[in-house]
Amino acid sequence: MIEVTKNIQLKEVSNTDTKVLFQLMQEIYPPAYSHFWKDDGSWYVNSQYSKENTLKELSQANADFYFILFKSEIVGNFRIVWDEKLPNLLEEKQVKLHRVYLHPKTQGKGLGKTLLSWLEEEAQQKGYKIIWLDAMDAQPQAFQFYKKAGYTYHSHTFLPFELMHDKVRKMSQVYKIL
Ligand SMILES: CC(C)(COP(=O)(O)OP(=O)(O)OC[C@H]1O[C@@H](n2cnc3c(N)ncnc32)[C@H](O)[C@@H]1OP(=O)(O)O)[C@@H](O)C(=O)NCCC(=O)NCCS
Predict the structure, then answer these.
(1) pLDDT, tens digit, 9 for 90 and up, residues 81-135
(2) pTM of the complete model beyond 0.90
(3) How far is the CA of 158 from the centre of ligand 1 (A)?
(4) What pLDDT digit, counting tens, does each position of 37-95 carry?
């Protein structure tokens, strides 16, 4: 368990937590992203947070996968992939923030900002020079959040998922030099 602040902890997701993670994301994902999908995002949550995919993600040696705890309650998830590089970005040591998802009841209270600062410090201490991540352009909450935290546009791609609405496919890669 990592003590980020008095009220915020990061607890490692383990192989026996796949159900808890799935149930959590069934609560978190739809309010933020169901309008991106023709099926309200069911296919995406079912595939991303299937037992099989979670176990695969947990087996990745250079990744850290955490539950976010706020006042001792699980309210989100946070996944970091060390040394994953963004093509055509500077050749320095890079870390990817793969996911940060908070439950609606804890959004807008500074938890996200605190976790980004924690990651910046952690990365700096380990000698990393860049944090980068993918952000959906059509999700202003996340996009503004990263912009405010000092992340800069690098490139973009369009997600190919068949069930995704065409107008929300754009995903930008943004980064911050530490
Ligand atoms: C995006 C997310 C991680 C942000 O975390 P958060 O704890 O809600 O954000 P914070 O309260 O730390 O806000 C940090 C800054 O972002 C800005 N921000 C947060 N939500 C915003 C919104 N809806 N619209 C515009 N700006 C927003 C805030 O203004 C704040 O700036 P300030 O400190 O100068 O006031 C969180 O809201 C979330 O999980 N959302 C749903 C899932 C998602 O989209 N996750 C990212 C996908 S990888």
Answers:
(1) 999 999 888 778 999 999 999 999 999 999 999 999 999 999 999 999 999 999 9
(2) yes
(3) 23
(4) 999 999 999 999 999 999 999 999 999 999 999 999 999 999 999 999 998 887 789 99
- Of ligand 1's listed atoms, the one at least distance from the Cα of 145 is 16
Ligand 1 in reach of 48 Cβ (< 6 A):
no
Check pocket membership of 148 for ligand 1, CB cut-off 6 A: yes
Q: What's the CA-to-centroid distance between 164 and ligand 1, angstroms?
A: 23
Report the mean per-residue pLDDT for the chain: 96
**Best substitution site from 44, 136, 141 to test ligand 1's pocket, by max atoms within 8 Å of Cβ?**
141
The CATH H-level (homologous superfamily) assignment of domain 2-177 is: Gcn5-related N-acetyltransferase (GNAT) (3.40.630.30)
Q: Give the domain ranges of the chain.
A: 2-177
What's the gap in Å between 103 CA and the centre of ligand 1? 11
Q: Residue 24 contacts by C-beta under 8 Å, 6 or more apart in sequence? A: 67, 74, 76, 77, 103
Burial of 16 (0-12, 13-18, 19+ CB in 10 A): exposed
